[in-house]
Amino acid sequence: MIAESWRAARSSVPPGHLDAAGCNVPSDRTLDAVVGHLRHEREVGGYRAVPDLHASRAALAALVGAGADDVALLESGTAAMAALLGGWPLPPGSRVGVTRAEYGSTLMLLYRLARLRDWKLLELPVDDDSRLDPGGLASMLAGGLDLVVLSHISSHRGVVQPAVAVGRLCRAAGVPLVLDVCQSLGHVDTGGAGATAYVGTSRKWLAGPRGVGFLIVPGLAGGMDAAAPALGGHAWVRGEAPAVGGHAWARGEAPAFGGQRVRGEAPAVGGHGWVKGEAAPLAGAARYETSEGPIAARAGFGVAVLEHRTLGPAAVHAHLAELGVTVRRLLDGIGGWRAGEPLDEPSAIVTLRPPPGVDPETAVEDARSRAAEASLLIGTVPVGRAPADLPTPVLRISPSPGAYQEDLHALARVLDR
Q: What DSSP line would sit under 369-392, residue for residue?
């Protein structure tokens, strides 16, 4: 039923598409929403063509137990993570827990922030499948952590992390949890974790357009703000602003740097002077947004989210879990390729390690190329995606809800050569 409904919503799908974890296939209605909004902008003017996304934000937020005002839309999951962590008010010496399986871009960001702000990155304990050990996490929380960052499902390995248990432990310890749901929201159940913040993307399991990411911040605490204030998420206010980093801002003054304070009005912009005072964040997650963005893509994403709700998230999750198990049992051992997850892992991200005795990079690229010749679209994951956890590149097969069994068997024949 899920497969048929998913296919019926799409008049065109790339042949042999098995790369939902890379970029899924939008529905006809999603495509129409994007094109229709662009047409509307052309007809009435871009700034007058403002889509009503409240219902879509509410439906998206509901997938993690949050509300519409907790959602911020950005241009990608990576940008959302940067906006969130870049503005996180952690003092020097703070301890941030992260697993070895964390996404490469997030690791890059954390390493830079740790160097600039004197944070300490601590590796959280995992098992042989790179699944976080709740008991080990509990010990580290007792020893002192200030933030935990976790990918619910990694880009390079289809293991589902115990997010509910992790969230419970973090809340009990009073430690905020950032949960990356780029590969899980729309794929597995994301409810019950009770994270402080969620970071996700449109184009994968929700099958929305590229160019849209999101933050969901139901646990917005005092001091949390975007890395850089911008119109759209902030407003000018009069009067004294609160102390920042031990230095109070005076009216019409720039902040103190190196003990020096710059006085006077800010320069005129567009012929109008700035209001004296400080930029204050808007209420809710809106503070992470700017006044510009791919509005047509966001309109399409809104439709995709509502379609996912109509299809039935629980039914979609169950169908994808079954597909993943089917793919692993079919492909594990074929031509020497071995599954990177337990065969019964309830996710539709399937990774395959290259056969022994061959050059891994050559084997992965050759398999991808032969699959393409057979009109099969699969993914590959380079070591840089998870440098602390991935010793060699891997193949990644991630069927969408509408995947055909014939394509899976065709891939088995390709890998068996």
A: HHHHHTT-B-EEE-GGGSTTT-SS
